[in-house]
Amino acid sequence: MATIAENTRTDLERERAFFLAMAAGIAATVVAGFGLQFAMGRSSLASPWWVHLHGVTFAGWVGFYLLQNALVYRGAVARHRTLGWLGFAWATTMIPVAVLVTCSSLASHRVPPFFQPNFFLAMDLITVFTFYAFTVAAIRLRQRTDWHRRLMLSGTIFLTAPAWGRLLPMPLLGQELGVWAILAAQLLLFFGFAIRHDLATRGRIHPAWFWGVGGSVAAVALMKPISALPFVVAWADKLTG
């Protein structure tokens, strides 16, 4: 019995360490993507206030996600659960911030030239709503920690799309191939590691990853048809003047 308990504790510690490592990898990806733009002179602090609001809100989520995994790794699960409600409020706030920033980007003509305005509008909103759907599902399943961890990670992985868009050669790829290239990076580097971890430690793929991968693929597949909807085209045209 003592051996079984020791093995169980070791497996739990290994799982917690893995999710902390994934959170750190996501944070590193975000820093690398946006840091590269600063290093190349494509971004600066001389940006409109809503750009800074977006940066603080979305980078703050990545930092919060890293903190939550660090708390679990250290065994401070009660504090993690208490802060979880702050996380829900934070994630909810990200929806109106994303809508504001996307609309403001279109209205001020700050959209990258390789994106059509209607595609950019659909892409940004689908990205943040997909993240939110994963996060809400994870919170609802918080008593089932295996599902909770994996769905939270799935949502945060999908949220790394803007960082990957700054690391990949998007002007060469274009909007449609570009979003699929971003998804490929997310699948190979984040979901791929997560699935391999489960195979190595559990001997099977956890069903949450089918939702994570499937939901991510569906979200990207829907970007083009949703961007072509008449009301989306009209909305983008109105914003761009």
Notes on the structure:
The protein is globular. The longest helix is centred in the N-terminal third of the chain and has 38 residues. The N terminus is likely disordered. The chain is built from 9 helices and no strands. With 241 residues, it is mainly α.
SSE layout:
Elements lengths: L1 H38 L9 H26 L2 H31 L9 H24 L4 H14 L2 H7 L2 H32 L5 H21 L2 H11 L1
Helix pairs in contact: 1-2, 1-5, 1-6, 1-7, 2-3, 3-4, 3-9, 4-5, 4-8, 4-9, 5-8, 6-7, 7-8
Sheet having the most strands: none
Based on Cα principal axes, name the global outline.
Answer: globular
Which stretches are low in confidence, meaning pLDDT under 50 for 5 or more residues running?
Answer: 1-7
How much of the polypeptide forms β-strand, as a percent range? under 5%
Q: Gyration radius, to the nearest Å?
A: 19 Å
Determine the number of helices (DSSP H or I, runs of at least 4 residues). Answer: 9
Number-wise, the strands total 0
Structural class from helices and strands?
mainly alpha
Order of secondary-structure elements: HHHHHHHHH
Mean pLDDT: 93
Which percent bin holds the helix content?
over 70%
End-to-end Cα distance: 71 Å
Total number of distinct structural domains: 1
